[in-house]
Structures are given as structure tokens and as C-alpha cells.
């Protein structure tokens, strides 16, 4: 049997069951060391898969750190340390320099210390980020409660529109298009949500593969039914403009598009914080599965062995 028959998440489920990996299933692994709760997570960016050779290397560095930090925040953690493994072809030193400019700038922004890594010669450029954080209260995917509101931070679907615009290789981009491209190239992990998530969320994860896919993991792990409404999905003005110009459905971008690195979390609706850009998109109910406007929602996001 080939792994593509299982798909990315079927493979993880298979490994988890076959080798009794009980801890697997949240954005970070939470381990207790002394009295502290350490959070551990890794993320890889691979040329051709996550970025193209034409991308600014500083953006690739920024994005990798952001993806890693985003998982730590999702579980209510404060990001602290980072290790970086380079899978490196024999490129010009300038390229590595640019990559590290992005990495170190992101570390400074998120208050993370780069403390080590590894270098391996490779046919294709890849960068692996290993992040360490600390939390007072771990918030995983499985803690949603009946009656919780389902919330997302920011807007969804912008990164996918940005990627499509990059692939169009236009000679001139309008301002709104450049803003979408920027969201694809340099997403910002939501460090402004750390206190809110760690204090109030019952369940939390980041949206890296696309809402329609990621929310399935949370519903499954929580063992409850997640009901969401399409018209509640937060869309940016830029995405609406993009969809209008290209005759596309903007909601499809919000449901399928990954790499926005926004947060998906649940807590009682009364805990809404008007100082954060959070939107309630639905409610946690008795039962199982994910429903959009009453109909079962299919996972349409990114899967490494299907996309
Ligand atoms: N090769 C593997 N071996 C063991 N556990 C794995 C492996 N790959 C993934 N996992 C675990 O499976 C779970 C789901 O992984 P998934 O990639 O969906 O989430 P994620 O780590 O939050 O992704 P992202 O970093 O893109 O947000 C996580 O707990 C992850 O640690
Ligand atoms: C050139 C190019 N083609 C496609 C994509 C889209 N993409 C790649 S990986 C991923 C999910 C998150 O990754 P992971 O699950 O590894 O964390 C998405 C949405 C891209 N960024 N660049
Ligand atoms: Mg994640």
C-alpha cells in the first residue's frame, strides 16, 4: 500500500494507532518538565511545495518562523526558542544570508531566541523549524464544550488568493493584489491572542491547511458537532475584490485556503473580546461532524499526499 492511499492525515492516524503515539494530535506536544509545561513543535518549508525559487528568501525565513510560532500560540504558549535545520544545495551564500535575515527578523518580532540547528547537503532547499514554548495552561484541540461559540481570528482565504496572484506572474500588480501577496509571503502569527487563548479558550488550533479541513480535527478530537455559518466567515476587502474581479466565490477561499495562520478556538460566547479581531462563526453542539449551514462540510484543504 502506498501512503497516498491514506493521505497525510490517514498516515498520521495510522502511525498513531500502530505505534501507540498517544500524545499525537495537537498543534504542539505538551511535556511536563519539573513544574513547567513545555510546548514543542516543528514545521518544514520545502522548495516547490511551500515556496518557489522566485520568492524573496527573507520572506521564506519569516514565514517558517511564523508557522512554528503560530502552533505554540494556538496551544496557549509563549514562544521562546527556535532551532533551524537547513537542507541546502550548494547555493550562493547571499541566498542563505537573505533567508537568515528573514528568520532573525521574525525571531526578534516574536521575542524568540534562535539557539541552534543543523546543516545537511540536499538536492532541494528545505528549512525545518523546531520551536519551544512555555504555557501555564495547555489548550488543545479536544476541549470544546457544548454551547461554546466557534471563533476565528482575522480574515480567511487571503493567502490562497495571494498564491494564485503570484502564480499569474503579472507584470503589474494593483495595491489590493500586493496586500494579498504579502499575506501569502509574510503571514503574522497571532501573538496578540496568547493571553486570550490561554485564559479563556476550551479548544484551540491554528488554521494552516484550510478551515474546512482543520475544523474537522477539532470536532473529532472534541467528540462534538461543530455547526458553522458560511455568511459569518470573515473575509477581507482585498479578497472580496479579488473574487469579484475573477468571478470566484470568496467563501470557497476561506474554506479551502491554508496558510493564513489565523486561530480557530472555542469558548462561551460571553468571553468575546471586542479588542481582538475575532468573529464567531458557529456553535459547538451535541453530536459529531462539521456542518456548514446545516449540511455536512467536506474537508477541502491542503493534504500533502492529495494536493
Ligand atoms: N511524522 C509524524 N510522526 C508523529 N507525529 C506526527 C507526524 N506528523 C505529524 N504528527 C503529529 O500529527 C498531528 C497533526 O499534525 P498537523 O500537521 O495536522 O498539525 P500541525 O502540526 O498543527 O500542522 P501545522 O504546523 O501545519 O499547523 C500533530 O500533533 C503532529 O505533531
Ligand atoms: C508553491 C506553493 N504551492 C502550494 C502552496 C500551498 N500550500 C503548501 S503547504 C500548505 C499547507 C500548510 O503546510 P504544512 O501542512 O506543511 O504546514 C499549503 C496551503 C504553497 N504555499 N506554495
Ligand atoms: Mg497547526
Automatic annotation (TrEMBL):
Classification via NCBIfam families: thiL
Amino acids binding Mg(2+) 5: 209
More about this protein: Reaction mechanism of ThiL seems to utilize a direct, inline transfer of the gamma-phosphate of ATP to TMP rather than a phosphorylated enzyme intermediate.
Residues that bind Mg(2+) 2: 43, 71
BP GO terms, sorted: thiamine biosynthetic process; thiamine diphosphate biosynthetic process
Chain's role: Catalyzes the ATP-dependent phosphorylation of thiamine-monophosphate (TMP) to form thiamine-pyrophosphate (TPP), the active form of vitamin B1.
UniProt binding sites for Mg(2+) 4: 27, 41, 71
Positions bound to substrate: 50, 259, 302
UniProt-annotated binding residues for Mg(2+) 1: 43, 118
Binding-site residues for Mg(2+) 3, renumbered to this chain: 27, 71, 206
Family listed: Belongs to the thiamine-monophosphate kinase family.
Annotated residues for binding of ATP: 100, 117-118, 141, 208
Highest classification ranks of the organism: Bacteria, Pseudomonadati, Aquificota, Aquificia, Aquificales
Gene name linked to the record: thiL
Catalytic activity, EC: 2.7.4.16
Tagged with keyword ATP-binding: yes
Name used for this protein in its record: Thiamine-monophosphate kinase
Catalytic activity, reaction form: thiamine phosphate + ATP = thiamine diphosphate + ADP
Keyword Transferase carried by entry: yes
Pathway: Cofactor biosynthesis; thiamine diphosphate biosynthesis; thiamine diphosphate from thiamine phosphate: step 1/1
